[in-house]
Amino acid sequence: MSLRPKRIALLGFLLSSFFATGAPPNIVFILADDLGYGDIACYNPTSKIPTANIDRLAAEGMRFTDAHSPSTVCTPTRYSLMTGRMAFRTGFRGVFTGVGGPCMIEEKRLTLPGMLQKQGYATAMFGKWHIGMSFFDKEGQRITNGGVKGVKAVDYSRPIPDSPIHRGFDHFYGTVCCPTTDWLYAYVDGDRIPVPPTRIVDKKSLPKHPYSNDNRAGMIASNYDLEEVDLVFLKKSQQFLKTHVMEKPNQPFFLFHSMQAVHLPSFPADQFKGKTKSGPHGDFIFEMDWIVGELMKTLQSLGVADNTIVMFGSDNGPEVPTVIAMRRDHHHDGARPWRGVKRDQWEGGHRTPFVVRWPGKIKAGSTSDQITSLTDIFATCAAIAGAELPNDAAEDSYDLLPVLEGTQGDRQVRPYLLQQTMSLAMSVRRGKWKYLDHKGSGGSNYSRDGEWGMKQYAIPDNAPDAPGQLYNLAQDPGETTNLSAVHPRVVARLKALLEESKKAGRSAPTR
Asked: Where does 4-504 sit in CATH, by number?
């Protein structure tokens, strides 16, 4: 008879006894990619895709209805999550590709995992990084070309000096940029690529459907299967959890599980193909939800689920081709009920699912309309871990712990919210008022016609001469009527607040 179940039961008992003394909880943050507010059943009653595991997280924890990614695209959002600081403050525009770098996070900047390390946590990340890494050629020169030319020039015997293990993580296994949409298809283990890419990916062998056209003809390693990426990340996270709990049961851990799903191309693994009636992208969302369930099963089997805070979010809204095809082919709207999609400053570009489960602390089945940002994870985790933050860290992060514990009431934690696009176009939200300091979406092209153009979803501009946009989200959540000419004083106040925040270098109060 195997002793494994008894060993796990004993570990569970020991851990329960240990955590009863008031030791800090474990923290798991699961980040989906390009997952829209309307892609999850508990956020969208008309969703065509079953998401039983995320729905269960919400039923056992708290669902936020006014949560936002700091940016409308991935690189700046991930920087902000790891630093608690808005990425526009760095001056960096766009997103990284290939072996582009260096890392956006300065070497001396305190990061979320670095802060938790200081509090005694073991820290691990598995999945997509996309905040920049430095690679070098055979002469030792840093590569600046972010395309396939740069990938071909890399000397893979040289270590990466600014990988996640140099920014606060004890362990890392994942990808430099987008796992299936990049010029480099290879895994980074720590600060090296043990199996370098050797050939250009054969796109002829890949699935053909409306959701499969987003991967570049980059270089691929022999151990890299574009349809198995998320399963590789899952196995790495599960392995870390099992090893850590068995070997260091008294040390809390922070796991950042950063998925490829559901970024285009939609390449669900074989076991998920046809699992929904919503095509390949529906199957990919189903796989993403299954992975959440498998991580929860692992925590439960190890006896640590009840003392682990599990947070689930997305880095921005749903992608343009995804939304068009899913609306047309499957009557599923990943942006519902908001205007806009990925890259847009309108709500659909950055209002995203955010669910937190913490048994014994968070009331099961609760919802919160607190205005929140993923930048707030930093200060919240600091409060949970008992860390005091210096003023030169987490400059745009607010502590959500009182919200999670149910002691905040109706008072808003955040006095206002900043948002940015990849071009550094800005918006500011205060209560019901939202001001976009630019014309148009700030991202997607709504003048583009045709089958894959967003013109079909364009809303007539009622104030074409206005330099910015003002919306009353309480009365007009769809952002259909620009009120900037009607309420010039509101515009002036919000624009002044935005400029003040830029100048001050922070939106959170000094500590």
From this structure: 3.40.720.10
